[in-house]
Write a structure and sequence with these properties.
Blueprint lengths: L3 H14 L2 H6 L11 H5 L8 H12 L7 H9 L6 H4 L6 H14 L5 H14 L3 H16 L2 H8 L7 H9 L6 H5 L4 E2 L7 E5 L10 H13 L2 E4 L9 H5 L3 H16 L5 E4 L2 H8 L1 H4 L4 H12 L1 E3 H7 L8 E9 L3 H5 L5 H8 L2 E5 L15 H4 L1 H18 L3 E4 L2 H13 L7 E4 H10 L1
Parallel strand pairs: 2-3, 2-4, 4-5, 6-7, 6-8, 8-9
Antiparallel strand pairs: 1-3
Length: 440
């Protein structure tokens, strides 16, 4: 609970830091309402809509309300999917407002010792250090391969965890060994004619828990004619920090990545995770007030491309791609679609696979409820959104759900498990499916 003193500090910083012109850009037209999952699933509560949250932020700036627990709850309930931005006639940068507001609240609120310890462990001790991420993932691999996982599942110990936690444990990917995690490439030649030189943002989770998907990404880029350089000094993108009120740490990571990638004269910087890509492409906004970094951040952001975009540009979809007869559907990554403006390319790639039938899912562009760690910290709302999503998935009768982001992938696997459809349906990252299609 925030104290009166904390609320006063928060309000003062809102008045000095929030972009008041951006707050005033909201015309309260309501175009954002039908696109907002939390507004719909909360029973159309205005405080859980983009328009409502902007009104609350403006009220705090104007001193009309206190930034109390209800205000913080409204901010935290937001998925940050940014589906409101493409439909806004005024072009309000809602995502930037939300991140600034969350940062002000978290930096001026005294957290309990357990919460502070968890935040320090995650934001300072784990994600910025890839070697620690590898060690932790390696331990997960031991848990999976040693028989310990099966023993824990049979013991019934998971029943004491929240349902979503227990189910998530079952759908985690089979992770590589610690030796495999440490033996990563830094330069790869194209297969065939060289068309582009690209640098690859490997990410922290993607190059540990989802390492096989990163390997598939690099193989596809090679087959498309790309020379690939992987900077050794790159770091976590900072999205988790930026979305969770740790803006200064996000800036540190952004500077480290910019410095790492600008040493390479590559045509593009490639990502394969929508959430990472959206935060990376926003580095120009994150560092706009730092003269030494603003232009460097813009140069970095201009080179960002999702793997699907570069594959289409290099006509990978015109290669011989085939799968066994099946229906496939696609779940958009919110940040890939709404921030990186990449929506047609994944569909074009999927529609080019011979033998498979692509069916568009109803509301494929709406959030699945993953949103980073949202499905952990706001589990109830996340599961409501997921249950609605799974109704649309089942209507397609698809065998394969394709995603373009690790969080979405785990969330859709979670949905399949919750629906008891594990023997009928699978969820895969788009690059894994494309590699399967070209190797068949």
């Amino acid at each position: 609970m925030t104290t009166i003193n904390e609320q006063q500090k928060i309000q003062k910083e809102f008045q000095s830091r929030m972009d008041q012109n951006e707050l005033l850009n909201c015309m309260r037209c309501g175009f954002c309402l039908p696109t907002c999952p939390t507004y719909i699933e909360s029973g159309y509560q205005e405080s859980h809509s983009p328009r409502g949250r902007i009104a609350l932020m403006k009220a705090v700036v104007d001193g009309l309300i206190e930034p109390d627990e209800d205000f913080e709850k409204s901010l935290n309930m937001c998925l940050g999917c940014r589906a409101c931005e493409p439909v806004c006639p005024s072009g309000v940068n809602y995502g930037h407002l939300l991140e600034e507001a969350r940062d002000i609240v978290h930096q001026n609120k005294k957290h309990s010792l357990p919460v502070k310890a968890i935040r320090n462990t995650v934001f300072e001790g784990l994600f910025p250090h890839q070697n620690r991420m590898r060690t932790l993932t390696g331990l997960l691999g031991v848990y999976q391969r040693s028989g310990m996982q099966k023993a824990v599942q049979k013991s019934g110990l998971l029943k004491f965890l929240p349902d979503s936690f227990a189910t998530m444990e079952r759908v985690l990917p089979d992770v590589p060994s610690l030796k495999e995690l440490k033996n990563r490439p830094y330069h790869l030649e194209p297969i065939g004619v060289r068309k582009k030189k690209v640098s690859f943002f490997t990410g922290c989770l993607m190059d540990t828990m989802f390492m096989k998907t990163n390997d598939a990404t690099m193989k596809l880029l090679q087959l498309a004619g790309c020379e690939i350089v992987i900077p050794k000094t790159q770091a976590c993108c900072g999205a988790l920090h930026g979305h969770s009120g740790e803006k200064n740490k996000a800036k540190e990571l952004a500077k480290q990545n910019i410095a790492a990638f600008e040493e390479i004269e590559a045509d593009y910087i490639i990502t394969n995770a929508g959430g990472c890509g959206a935060f990376l492409i926003d580095y120009d906004h994150l560092l706009k007030d730092e003269p030494q970094w603003a232009e460097r951040a813009k140069s970095f952001s201009r080179k960002l491309k999702d793997i699907s975009s570069v594959l289409v540009e290099l006509e990978f979809h015109k290669k011989e791609l085939s799968l066994d007869a099946q229906i496939i559907t696609y779940q958009d990554s919110c940040h890939l679609r709404n921030v990186m403006k990449t929506a047609s390319e994944p569909r074009e790639l999927l529609q080019s696979i011979n033998g498979a039938t692509y069916l568009e899912m109803k509301n494929a562009d709406s959030c699945c409820g993953s949103a980073g760690i949202y499905n952990i910290v706001e589990s109830e709302m996340s599961m409501k959104i997921l249950d609605s999503k799974m109704k649309n998935v089942k209507d397609t009768q698809a065998k394969t759900i394709v995603t373009a982001n690790p969080g979405c992938l785990l969330q859709m696997k979670l949905g399949i498990e919750r629906e008891g459809l594990s023997d009928q349906m699978r969820a895969v990252h788009i690059v894994d499916l494309l590699l399967e299609a070209i190797e068949k």
